[in-house]
Design brief:
two-stranded antiparallel ribbon; 6 helices; alpha+beta; SH3 type barrels; five-stranded antiparallel beta sheet
Length: about 260
């Protein structure tokens, strides 16, 4: 029986977040951690602003707005722990983490804007060494900086930085690609059954597609054609391999979508 790694209560493995190392996480627990972090940051920023203002303008502040040094220290310690907890969770999320830009900045501060492939200092992008769909994680050791020319030289133009072009070897997915492209062009959603490699059953997903792209296979030759978009079931951006989809269709309109999602919740 799976349990949430935060609250240690029972987790429905079909509908909660399945972390990369096998643990589970309630979506509500993650949201609570994020909201508490944001709340503390607002309090501390307000405190800093009041202190700065008091150096130049003499103002009267109500007792309710005054925070003692002990409270500030306590909140700062709590914030540090929350950030560490969230960072460790984000390491193993099955999708791109909310602190993606911070992770990129961390690597740039460590090594500079150096492309791992050509060794030149350029504008760089952050990518996974082992893609998420191939078992990779968001841990820093699985992330690398690469420039656009090098990426396009290795994997072809448009795979991640530009418009998508279906390759001849992927002709079997042409109908699915056409449906997904139509949904993106017309701001519509797609519905399909999806089966993870480790899953025994298919699960229906409703997704707002954002882009099509190829992910290089690190364990074998070739590439995996994927679609990224907002998943109604998980309430987060997810990546889906087209080879693991079936019965894909464009949802005709937004009305009544809830009944499809509720059916599986």
């Amino acid at each position: 029986m799976p349990y949430c790694t935060v609250c240690k209560q029972y987790a429905d493995y079909e509908y909660d977040i399945n972390l990369a190392y096998g643990d589970y996480l309630h979506t509500s627990c993650l949201i609570k951690l994020q909201m508490r972090k944001d709340e503390i940051e607002v309090i501390l920023r307000r405190q800093d602003a009041q202190l700065l203002s008091s150096l130049f303008v003499r103002t009267e502040v109500s007792d309710r707005e005054v925070i003692s040094e002990e409270d500030v220290e306590s909140l700062s310690d709590e914030l540090t722990k929350l950030k560490n907890t969230l960072s460790s969770i984000y390491d193993f999320l099955p999708n791109w983490p909310p602190d993606w830009n911070e992770r990129k900045l961390h690597l740039i501060q460590q090594n500079g804007s150096i492309c791992l492939s050509c060794g030149e200092e350029r504008d760089v992008y952050l990518i996974h060494e082992i893609p998420l769909c191939e078992g990779g994680t968001n841990e820093l050791e699985n992330l690398e900086l690469i420039c656009k020319p090098c990426y396009e030289g290795m994997y072809g133009k448009g795979d991640i930085f530009g418009s998508f072009t279906l390759k001849a070897s992927q002709s079997e997915f042409s109908e699915q690609v056409a449906e997904i492209q139509y949904a993106m062009d017309n701001s519509q959603k797609i519905r399909f059954d999806y089966k993870k490699p480790s899953a025994k059953t298919w699960m229906m997903r409703v997704v707002v597609p954002e882009r099509l792209f190829n992910i290089p296979n690190n364990r074998e030759s070739g590439e995996t054609l994927c679609v990224e978009g907002f998943c109604e079931l998980r309430q987060a951006n997810r990546v889906f391999a087209l080879e693991r989809m079936q019965a894909l269709e464009v949802v005709p309109d937004y009305n009544g979508l809830e009944k499809y999602v509720d059916t599986y919740q």
